Amino acid sequence: MGLTVTTFVVISVIKIVIALVVLLTAVAYTTWLERKLVGHIQNRWGPKRVGPFGLLQPLADGLKFIFKEDLTPPHVYKPLYIAAPILSLALALTSISLVPIGNWVEVGGVYTPIEITDVNIGLLIILGITSLGVYGIALAGWSSNSKYSLLGGLRASAQMVSYEIALGLSLVGVLIMSGSLNLREIVDMQGGHMWAWIPRWNIFRGQIVAFFVYLAAAFAETNRVPFDLPEAESELVAGYHTEYSSMKFAMFFMAEYANMITVASIATLLFLGGWHGPLFGPWWLQNILPVFWFALKVFGFIFLYIWVRGTLPRFRYDQLMAFGWKFLFPLAVANVLVTSLIVALQK
Amino acid sequence: MLQLVLFFVFGTIAVAAAVNLLAQRHPINSALSLVVVMASVAMLFLLMGAEFLAAIQVIVYAGAIMVLFVFVIMLLNAGEEERTAGSRVAKRLGFPAVVLLAGLLAWTLLTRNQHPATVELSGRFVGSPVAIAQLIFRDFLLPFEVTSVLILVAIMGAVVLASPAGTTTGRGSPEQPPAKREE
Amino acid sequence: MVPVSYYLVLSAILFALGVVGFLIKRNLITLFMSIELMLNAVNLAFVAFAWQWKSLNGQVFVFFVMVVAAAEAAVGLAIIIAVFRTRETLNVDRVNLLKL
């Protein structure tokens, strides 16, 4: 493309800043969305006083977290106690750097893709970051030196490690059909239509079982209902973040929602066709529309997350582990087998 | 040039974390130092073009095996090491031993390896997943299938060894009949 | 460009640190971690040689080493748990009699 080193660095820095700002705002407004939606499901209003429709509620929450007393209990193992939320949040924010959001655009004479980096093994790196996310929770639970935290931390880590397998395997079906680990190439193969009006998204091309396995595994990976036993209040006080207050708790909170957004982005890239959608209008609209379709699909996925949260009761822990190992894992393996058979027979 | 700088950065991080692993008394600190070593080795793999191996190193080694170590340390509540007589002797002989062993290996490698490619790494040599998959599933298919049996054996062994003494079904299984009451 | 011998010397240093860790540490789990450090050093040497000879066989071998290390870590930690259950100590100096 003829980019010099300085141009590349400047563009990358701009993209990183934009991505971080957008991601953190998205995290804040996902909390607003959750409170509104769960409120409406439970036949009540949700936040409506702070600003129109309660839209300034995340701002009020952020201010509250900053002003709360930052208490460090005396019995904790300090180095890990402080490092655990930092690790969680850092890993949750890193995965956004591998997610492509739109097509190549030309901005001010520079031709660049709308993503921070384009790596050939992008999907594997995202799975690696998810694997490392277990450390934040395990270390938080252990370093807090309290029985609720330790139990919550151990349960959450065991659950995340178990469902990682089903998560990874459910993506293998898509990889077999696409033949590449590069996220941009996987999305490019979902462009166009088949049978005239059904888009060629992977979910319509036979990966519907994989989509549901991915959905269930993603709920478990992000510790959300119906798999949120490690954080359940009636069960474990607050699980692994019992002893955390103020900004450190806010970091765990943000890390959980950032993980939700990352998981939703992966689902749209691999199953829902990424940024493909109807394109119309002048050239500047044509550049913005893919990003809009991507955001719409991610929003739909998060809506599903919150909807399930308001609706389903939570699993007991042994039911949870049995579901992950005895049902999801064989189902994901069966999906891989069937997909590879079909792809091999088609060649 | 940039590769040399990156090599020295990640090499220094790896050696510093390995020394920290030896110097720390609490096993959890050693475990986390080992995670840092594995992450920097993954970066070094990336520098040498082994991208698939770098990702697998992070996912399997740093993200699963070391989590297992951290779990065991948390479950057994392993405390700090005690200072026994054996450990003091071991420490006094230990550090000269490191220097001796490392020096011997380094001298052998540097003087005996006379291939011209040792002088500079050139060209683009990438271990992409496609290339490695072609090797694993064609030339090395038998070892690949044998490793799957190996993992199965390891799973069974670990479950049997770690289950509570006297039973493999565990005392907490929900299918057990309730205790009989004296009437 | 980085000569291959630099990578090999780094691998030698890590391996030596792992050997010494295995010999001087008294905690069973730290001992085990020194073994993992040695395996990592060996993996680094394999990948360096794969680069030197431009052959991917070295990288495939690293893949198998990782699988074996995973299996060995699982079984070894299970043994450590069993030892802890009976002896109630993780200090190797105390696990020196066949009978409790």
- Share of helix among residues of chain B? over 70%
Judging from the principal axes of the Cα atoms, what is the shape of chain A? globular
**N- to C-terminal separation of chain A?**
35 Å
User: Percent range for helical residues of chain A?
Assistant: 55-70%
SSE order of chain B, as H and E? HHHHHH
- Mean pLDDT over all positions of chain A: 84
Number of strands of chain B: 0
Distance between the termini of chain B: 85 Å
Write down the CATH class of the domain at 1-81 in chain B. Mainly Alpha
- How many helical stretches of chain B? 6
H/E element order of chain A: HHHEEHHHEEHHHHH
Keywords:
heterotrimer, B: 183 residues, mainly alpha, Four Helix Bundle (Hemerythrin (Met), subunit A), 6 helices, 71% helix, globular, C: 100 residues, Helix Hairpins, 3 helices, 78% helix
Brief summary of the model shown:
The complex is a heterotrimer of chains A (347), B (183) and C (100). With 347 residues, chain A is mainly alpha-helical.
What does this structure look like?
- The complex is a heterotrimer of chains A (347), B (183) and C (100).
- Chain A has 347 residues and is mainly α.
- Chain A has one domain (73-346).
- Chain A is built from eleven helices and four strands; from the N terminus they run αααββαααββααααα.
- Chain A has a two-stranded antiparallel sheet. Chain A has a two-stranded antiparallel sheet with strand order 3-4.
- The longest helix of chain B is centred in the middle third of the chain and has 28 residues, at 85-112.
- Chain B has helices at 2-23, 27-47, 51-76, 85-112, 129-139, 141-162.
- Chain B is mostly helical and 183 residues long.
- Among the domains of chain B are: 1-81, NADH-ubiquinone/plastoquinone oxidoreductase chain 6, subunit NuoJ (Four Helix Bundle (Hemerythrin (Met), subunit A), Up-down Bundle); 128-164.
- The termini of chain B are far apart.
- Chain C is mainly α and 100 residues long.
- Chain C has one domain (4-87): Helix Hairpins.
- Chain C is built from three helices and no strands.
- In chain C, α1 (4-24) runs antiparallel to α2 (28-53) and α2 runs antiparallel to α3.
- Chain C starts with a helix and ends in a 13-residue tail after the last helix.
- Chains in contact: A-B, B-C.
- At the B-C interface, α1, α2, α3, α4 and α5 of B face α1, α2 and α3 of C.
